[in-house]
Every structure is written in structure tokens, then in C-alpha cells.
Amino acid sequence: MTTRLPHLLLLAALGAGCGSTTTETSTFDGGSDGSGGSDRDGTTGPGHDSGKIGKDGGVKLGSPDVAVAFAVTPTSLQTLTVKVGASSPTETYKATANGGPANATWSVDRPDIGTIAPGPASTGVLVPTGTTGGIVTLTVAGPGQTLTRQVLVKLTATQSGPNASAAEMAQVPTTVAQLSALGGVGGVGGEGLGVAVTDPAALAALANPTGDAGSPGLTFLYPYDKTVWPRGMIAPLLMWSWGPGDADAIQIELATGSGSFSWTGTFGRPAILSMTGGPYIRSPIPQDVWDMATNTAGALTTAGKPDPLIVKLTVEKGGVGAGPITETWPVAPGRLTGTVYYNSYGTHFVKNWVNADGAGNAVGAAILGIASGATAPTLVVGQNSPLNASGFPTDDTGCRVCHVVSSHGRWLLTQSEQGNPGDGQSYLYDLSQTNVQGSALAIAQQGVFGWAAMVGDGSYALTNSIDPSSTNPALGGTTSSFWQFAPTPAASAGTLNGLPAGVAAGYPSYAPDDKQVAYVDVTGQTTNVDGPINTAQYDVATQTFSNVQTVAMPATGQRIGYPVFLPDDSGLIFETEVRSSNEDSVMVTRNGARSELWWVKLGATPTPVRLDVLNGNSGGTSYLPTNANNHGTSGASDPESSYSEVGFDDTTLNYEPTVLPLVAGGYAWVVFTSRRLYGNQLTAVPWLSWPPDYDTTSLAQATVKKLWVAAIDLSDPASSDISHPAFYLPAQEILAGNSRGFWVLDPCEPDGQSCQTGDQCCNGYCEANGDGGALICSSTTPHSCSLVQEKCTTAGNCCDTSNICADGFCAIPGSK
């Protein structure tokens, strides 16, 4: 599990003025006891009036009665170089008043970097934790005055082979079956961490590489350069290509730009390769190392810039080293909370399809969930159909897919292969229940709720007018309607007020704050999607719509759909289909359909812009890897597409976006379906995802239809590409075809329950249970303001005056 320190993520660079003088003079009344201290949000103790984080690094207090020269030494930025796991060296500070020792209270803004005894005492000793590097700001409250000092902790480590930690042992498979089980090794696939390197020749070659040792040269296949990573994420799988196509040993280096973290690891061939016989062409980063690196990176440096994470890879074969190759990754100083609920086709969690896979195995379709930080999915909705004596389903009644989830994470609507029309039976599930499957409510109205849009708490829904596919008859009507699910889950018809009469709203979605709705206007053409994207205002109190506006039009021969709001309501992300499927007149991901993701900033003159970087383009050129399976190089046979792939690459294999309803670490985060290559781990032809076409138990044949995540800037102009390179969503079932991921908040926790961030709590605060206690949900805060990911109604509620209030929670406003 990853250690989470949600309240401490965004305070690392407070206190810019800590080296200009050796003493500071203040006045105070003779009755002051010098207590007061500093809370995590920068506020001082009782009687002090400032609750906001300032830019000067300190708060000077007192009344003009007596002049006191209060000083804390040393005054300049101090640097400690600390080995991982060590608590030394330490840094000692002394507090004086008029030249003599003065009792003061001591606190730090980043106790994940270092701790200090609170006092009161005239001496404070900063003790590094040995788990996180970076700048820690000390706040020292003395007689009538509060000063700040800063320490840069540089965390360093080296290793050869995996260490004995539980996190790294989980990245070392011991059986071949583990390579393809659930989310794969460590949730990302590959063969796990390699063994220690003991051969002197190999070590020498890694230390002094002489070149590429083959042609073509050494290159990264995954991750992509400039990928933005959130904290708390599963460590990625490094994948590379070079001439020999194999390696005996590798060296991975991770370091921040400032030097606040540096690590070097050497690894030999993973032991499991002696069983599989495959090449050494990929390796994970050790999970505990990744946690330390990302918890350190992303904070502001002494220059006030976010500290990037730099990775270097050197490989060795036959005593010849190649590299290093380098990538630079920004790290967002925030964690992605909640759960991703997604469709899984060809899953082995259930058996509910009459059709067996290409090797005769029974398979199924279901909705799976990935909790934040998990390494494997769990079954959420879907069950076995009746099975015959041979263990094969006799019908498809257990299938549950084509779902939507309310953004607050309570309710899930899904379809089944039953009803009138054929897939028209909808079910409503309560995700707050321990037994989610047991909460199923078969909705009486059939052919109505396929892909309906629910408001955040699931109490109302605007229905969709487009069938999930041309062969998936889930809807019985051609116009949209409005329904109420509260106060009881049973659906009751409401009145559709404010939208045009007879409107057919396709792929509708609500903004996270429920104040707007977006949809494709397919009125009169629900079986041939070819309409614009409209938005409308929505009044939560009266359940009425107004101010319908067209914000995007499809180009000739294209379709647009799946509009979703950014968490601050500033714009929409949507899919543009540039080539339709062989079979469908609606938007799908299958049978040769090619799509890109775009965005449009809402306002008086909305102008759509393609998200080139997310799609895989940089400067007009694809940076995605290629192979001969129709991923940039055409000619391979695809059982589900008859198109020629000449002139196409993986930049048009991106579909079905959804957006996390919160800003995290200064970014929005989009989840989308893609059929791109996953480095050299998943390499099948793009549309191989219909289970009867292949062996769903074979990792070599596994479909590339997977979920990806990308960071989105919120501070860029309307005419710019606001996206960053995407990363593979860890923990998804590696053998199955995965799509339509909804990343939503989990049902909120009541007061007293454990938490990591305020957005997990029903009353909006996640606070320490007493001095130094565990974090629990609370309806109150000891601060006079809200920290990042705590509740707000306006930006003025946030401790950091640069924060915005997005969807009811304080957030970093931008990423640059």
C-alpha cells in the first residue's frame, strides 16, 4: 500500500524569506507567553488572526509595547543528504531573544520529510524521516513573533536486485500463471524485478556504456516522455527496444531535477524468464522507490518551479552497455482518489456468454472496479449465467455492461442482455452497499435507461437516445425523457422542462456540480449519429434546463460524441470519430472505427481543439511506438476490420472519455479507451477484442483494448492543446477487453471514519484525530480555512489564496 499524506502535498515551498537577517526585531506585551505555533495551513495559534498562507514565509505578530530581537539560527537554507531509511544527519536550530535563549514552539509543514519536537524549547532539532526528500519549512513561534526557516533534504539510495520489502516482493512473480493473472505483475504486467547483478563485467558495462550495441538504437517504448504522474499511483512498467532485442542486465536511475531524491538500481534477468524463455525487454520500477520518488517530486524548488522526475535507463548484453536514454516526467502534487468502474469483455471473473472464446474457454462480461492504489480489479456487477454440465453458460442472463455511474459514486446504472428491446432491461445498483450485487433493482421501465446521464447523487436522470451499438438494442424510443430516482430508487417519470420539444439527447452527461448538461443532438436521426454537441444550464432546485448552446459541430464524414465536462466546468472533452466502423452507424470502438479526443472551452465563441499530445502527436509527428500489427505499419490481418490501415497509426485509436470530477495536483484527469500498443507487452492488431476470435487466456494474444489516463491543464488558453501524454491505467484485467471507465468519487464516509482527503468525507474535512492522531472524517476543522481537497463554497474558503474552488473542494488552479 502507498503511504498517503493528503494534507501535506501542497505546502512544501512556503517561506521564501528565510536568509536575509540574523535577527528580527518585534514588539510584544509583557504578558505574552510566546506560545502559538503553526498549523499545517500556515495559521498561527490562538489569538493570531491570519489564516491565509502568505508569500513572505512568516507572520510577524505583537503589539508595540516592548522591542525584542528574536532570532532563529541558522538562517540560510540548510541541506541534509540522507540515505533512504536513515534519520540522520539532523539539523539543530537555536532560538534567542535579545541574545539569550528563548523558548519557542516548533512545527513543520512537511512531516513526511522531517519532524521536530514541538517544544516549547530554545532548541529545535529537525530529524529526517528517510522516506521523502524535498524542502521542509520550519515555523518557529517565539516571543511575539513567528519566523520560518527551511531545510532541503536530499534522499539517496542504491540497490541491486529486489529488496525484501513487501512492496518489492509483490513485484517478483514465482509462477508463469502470475504473469497473466488479474492486472498482471504489480498491476502493470511484465516479468517483474530482475535479480541482483554480480558479474563485474556487466556492472562495468552499465557504469561505462559504449553505445547502442546494435541497430536500431536504444529507445523507450513506454512510458512516454513528459507524462504527468499523480502521486499514489502504481509504479509503471519500463519497456524498451534496441538492436539485440534482449539484455543481461539493466540500470535504472531516478532523480529529481533539484537532487532532492536520487536512486540507482541494477537488475539482472528476472528469474521467471528461466521458465518462459523470453527476452529481457521490460522492467517495473520498484514500488517503494516509486512512492518515495513521486512523493518528493512535484514540490516547488527554491526557484519556485515544480521539481520534475528524471528517469535514465542503461542496458547491457554480452559485456557491452548501451545508453543511458532519458525521459523527464512532471509529477502532480496530488493523489487520485475514488474508483474506476469499467466494462470488461472476455473477463474470467464470470461465465455468462454463450459464445466461448477462440480456444473454447468459457468467458463473460461484467463491470469491474479499480480502487485508487490497487494492483488488481474486483468484480462489481455481473454474475454467472446458468451453467451446463460442462461448465459453459446456457444463456447470457448474467451479463452486465453498458453502464453509467453517478459522479458522487453512489449509484450505477447498467444494461443486461434481456428485456424489450433485446438489451432493454436496466438495473440500478447501490455502490455504498457491502453486497453491491445484492442491491440490484430491476427497473420496471425497459428500453429507457441505457447510458442515461445521472446527476451527482443519482437522484435524477436524463435519458440517452442512441443505442450502444447498431447490434445492441437497448432503447425503445427515439426521444429523451427525464426521470426521478429519489427519495426511493424506483424510477418515476418527471417533466423535461427547458430542452427543445422532442429532443433526442445522445450520450448525455452532467457537469460535476450538476449545473450544466452536455449531449449530442440526434433529434430525428438516432440510428445515424450525425449531430452537434449542445450544452444547457441545469437548475438543481427546480430540475429545469435552459440556455441551450451549440458548442461543437462535426466535420463532413465525421461524428462527435461522448462529451464530458472538466471538473471546473470550463470546457468539454469529447470524441471525434474520423472513420466509422465496418458495421455501425453510431459511435463504437470496434470493427475498424478510428477516433481522436478533442476539447472545447465553453464561452461566447467555443472553438474545438484536438488534444494532439494525449492522442500521441507531438509537433505533428506521432511519438507512439509502432509495429507490423497495423500499429503504424499496415498489412496485418485483423479479424474484425476489413479496412486498409495504410496511412494510419495509433493516434486515432482513442475513444469514450470520462473525467475525474475533482482537480487533483493542479490537473484534471481524463480516462479513455484506447487500442494503442502498450509498449511491447500488449501488441495484437487493434480490433482483436471479440473473444471468439482469440484465446482469452493467452497473454501473447491479449487484446490492446485498454483504459488509459492523461493529465489535462486547466489554465491554458482556449486555442491550445491542454493535454499531456497518457499512461496505462494500472490494475485493469490484463487479458480482457476493457472500456468505458468512469472514475468517480467513492460514497462519502461519515464522521469518525478513516480517510486520506476531505473529498472522501460526507462533511468535507479529513483531520487528525487529536494531536498526531490518525486522519478521520470530521464536520469541523481546526483551521480557519480549508486545505486542498477539503470543502469550499468559494475560493475564499481555501487556506492557499491561489487555490480555486472546483466542484465544492479547494484545488490547485493550474499546472504550470
Question: What do you see in this structure?
Answer:
The chain is mainly beta and 816 residues long. The chain has five helices and 49 strands. Strands 3, 6, 9, 10, 14, 15, 17 and 18 form an eight-stranded mixed β-sheet that branches. A hairpin with a 2-residue loop joins β17 and β18. It is globular. The protein starts with 23 loop residues before the first strand and ends in a 5-residue tail after the last strand.
Mean pLDDT over all positions: 87
Note the main sheet.
8 strands, mixed
Total strands: the figure is 49
What would you report as the Rg, rounded to the nearest angstrom?
A: 28 Å
Shape: globular
Unreliable stretches: 1-64
* Share in β-strands: 25-35%
Q: Percentage of helical residues?
A: under 10%
Query: Distance between the terminal alpha carbons, to the nearest Å?
Result: 30 Å
Number of helices: 5
- Class of secondary structure makeup: mainly beta
Characteristics:
mainly beta; 816 residues; eight-stranded mixed β-sheet
What is the topological layout?
Elements: E1 24-28, E2 66-73, E3 78-83, E4 91-97, E5 100-101, E6 105-108, E7 114-115, E8 123-128, E9 134-142, E10 145-160, H1 166-169, H2 200-207, E11 219-222, E12 229-231, E13 237-241, E14 249-256, E15 261-268, H3 273-276, E16 282-284, H4 287-296, E17 309-317, E18 320-329, E19 331-335, E20 339-347, E21 364-371, E22 378-381, E23 401-405, E24 411-415, E25 426-430, E26 441-442, E27 453-454, E28 460-462, E29 482-484, E30 492-493, E31 505-510, E32 516-521, E33 533-539, E34 544-552, E35 559-565, E36 571-579, E37 594-601, E38 609-610, H5 612-615, E39 617-618, E40 621-622, E41 654-659, E42 668-674, E43 706-712, E44 727-728, E45 737-744, E46 765-768, E47 775-778, E48 804-806, E49 809-811
